[in-house]
Structures are given as C-alpha cells and as structure tokens.
Amino acid sequence: MPGQRNRLGDLPGVGPGHVGGPRIVGMVRIRRKGRTNPSASRSRHQRAPQNRVDTVHVPFRSGTLAGTARACYIVRVALGYNRVVGSGVGLSLMAEPARLAQGPVRDLASARRAGALGWLCALPAVLAALLAGATEQAHDTLLDKLAAGDYSRRGADTCLGCHDEEEPFPTLDVFVTVHGHPEVDGSPFEMDETAELPAGLQCEACHGPVGDHARQMLPDGVAREPVLNFGARGNAEASLQNDLCLQCHRTYERTRWEGSAHELAGMACADCHRIHSETDAVRTMSGQNETCWGCHRSVAADALKRSAHPLRDSQLVCRDCHDPHGTDNRKLNVRTTANETCFTCHAELRGPHLWEHPPVVEDCTICHAPHGSNQPALLLRRPPQLCQACHSSVGHRSFAQVPGQLPPRPTSEFLLAKACLNCHAEVHGSNHPSGNLFRR
Q1: Euclidean distance between CA atoms 123 and 91, whole angstroms
Q2: Residue of 96 and 435 predicted with greater confidence
Q3: Rounded CA gap, 208 and 72, in Å?
Q4: Which H or E element spans position 360?
Q5: 384-403 pLDDT, tens per residue?
Q6: What is the DSSP string of 35-89?
Q7: CA dihedral angle for residue 155, residue 157, residue 159, residue 163, rounded to 10 degrees
Q8: pLDDT over threshold 90, residue 86
Q9: Could you tell me if 46 and 52 are in contact, meaning their C-beta atoms sit under 8 angstroms apart?
Q10: 0.70 surpassed by pTM
Q11: Cα(204)–Cα(220) distance, rounded to whole angstroms?
Q12: What are the CA-CA distances from residue 322 to residues 256, 263, 338, 342, 437 (Å)?
C-alpha cells in the first residue's frame, strides 16, 4: 500500500529510526466494505460494492499489551480503518463495534473517537486473548518440565535465595504450616528419604522442577523460564494446578471433585486456599464466608437482609450446608435433600406428624429463602400472599361475604398481624387428633 508506509513512518515510536526494544512486523488484514469497484472497464451502472482486503505491515512490540495498543491505534486512527478481520504475528485485534462507519475515516478526530470506542469495547477480549496465550505457552512448558522430572539438589535453598520476606510475594510463612513442617508425614519438607514422592521435594513438590528458572543472569530479551504459580498469579490451567494438589489431598472427602460445580467452572484449589499464609482463611469460621462471598455476591447480599441465618456473625458457615469439593446432591448440599440439610439444625420440624403439610414434606425452599429474606422467618412472601399461592381464599372467613365487608371497611381481622398463622399456627405439621387444619 504505497502512501500508507509514509504515514506509518511519521508516527512517533514507529519510524525507521525508532529505538525502544525489539519490534515485530505484524501483517494485519483489513476489510473495507461497500467500496465501489473503480475498474474503468465497467460502466457506472455496472459498478457493484466490493469487499476490499488490504494488507498493512504494522511494527509493534511483541508480546506486550502496549504493543498491541500501539498497533490498534495505528490501524484505526492513523490509517483510518475500522474493521480488522485477520491478524499476523503475535497480534489480535477486534472487530468493529456496531454503528461505526465502514471504510477509511477521513476526519482524524472522528477516527480517534472511533478507535477509542472500538478499543474500549474490545479491551476485555484483547486482555483475555493475551492472558490465554501466555497461560497456554507456560502451561505447555510446565508440562514438559514435570514430565522430565529434573528436580534440583538444593531444594528450597535455591528458591529462598530470591523469594524471601522482602519480595512482593513473601514465602517464609509456609514454614509455620503443615506444608512446611518437616515432622508432618507426607509434607513437602519431610526429612525421611524413604518417604513416597512428592514428599521431600520441598518447594518443587508443588511448583514443579525449578530448571532454568533459578538462573541468576539471563541474556537480553530472554524471559525467565516459568515455574508453576497458583491462584490469581496462576500461569497454568486450573486442572494442572489441582492435579498437583490432589497428588497428596485426594482423600475420600474429595473423591467427588471431578465433575463438581466448582471443577466445571474452572476453579483451582488456590482460588480459595492460601498455602503460604500462616492461617488459611477459608478454613476458619471468621474467614470462610468472606471467601465464598468473593464469588457468590447474591448470597452475600441475602445475608444482609432483615431475616437471615447468622452468617454475618460467623455462627454459621457455608460448609455447614454445602460441600465445596463436590457432592452427589443439588446445590452441593451436604445432605441428600434440602429438607435433610435443614433438619440438621431444625430437628423439631422433622416429623413425621399425624397431620402433614405437603410443602413441608416436599421441600423447605417452597416457602423459605435459606440465605436471607426481608420477610419474617426467611419467608419468600408474607402471609396471606404466601399461603394463597396454593390455597384459594374463596369461602374462607377472610373473604368478603357481604357488601358491608368490602372497602372502605377495615381489613379483615383474619389478615392482620400473622394473617393465616393467627389461626393455623402449626403450619409445619400437627400431632393433635383434631389438628387437620393445623390450628392446634
């Protein structure tokens, strides 16, 4: 594209004399829709819209978000294109947002606005693509290192030369946990040489062989070889992170992890657990709910409602009702049904009763919101509306029988205070011989 090359050279930071680190020329294919075929061999009436594909060579820094942003700016603003449909070396740009004009943008201010809007719309996708690419590359490298099994002889001494308490990610707290205690059977720091691996591999038991990661001097432009990181800094797929944890922690309690809701959601053990901390918050009464609420925000909101289980006071924790490592039951309940889970605490309502209330026998959540409600007793709605979802009020004494009972007359006394519960107090079931209407 003659002419475009000169415009690229005029941009700051991309000219031929620019010095600022390694550059990669990415070949970006750009489609301009609705352009008329300028061929002179066809008449004006025969000319039809064409999809023209141009190729632009864009210099940018390889493997950096800033490089991608620079290439995006060049393509959208300086060159005046709106729709990027393909990419070359190391570059992945976005499609055009709706309503943006097709073809070259003549006004530079409009081009900047269009480019900024497109960049903001596509920023999550670009970040996800960059992170996914980096994670995939590191994941493959880590698999090769684990398969080779080239563990160091110095163990933690190699790691602690750099990773001490002055680093952004201190590690010495691991030595006050079971993972760093040499007297705990099967721990990574166990001193018994006859112990079954990975016991005794120290840091490399979880983070994999150190390999060239421990090299003190690296050539210019060479990235440090990765070791396995966990949690928010994880550089491998969650399945690999979890497999390293489960090589020691695959106990009966975690036999249902594979296929559980959290495993299918791509969660890693380190998303909830903190191994390098003296106290793992998710294993404490005070910190477990906060950890779960990091994802389950709606449950955190329900716990603040007028009527709620004592989750805010940590008198009840999520693990009392749910097993995060997986169960065969709905909602990860620790018991087979919701009722069995509720009866763990509310045993007085278990029954059987002489007179049973069908929704009580079927499912407590028909009437109650277990995490919290703005109605009394965790009810989904106030009586009589809750009761009238199943029971018709026709023929009941609360229903207007004569004109004098219609508004503006006062509300029926059967609907005040607790409404239906004023009379039908034993709504969960009755053992009284005359308790068929749950009034005694």
Answers
A1: 14
A2: 435
A3: 37
A4: helix 358-362
A5: 889 989 988 787 777 766 77
A6: EEP--TTS-TTT--EEEEEEEEEEEE-TT-HHHHHHHHHIIIIIS----B----T
A7: 150
A8: no
A9: no
A10: no
A11: 27
A12: 13, 15, 10, 11, 35
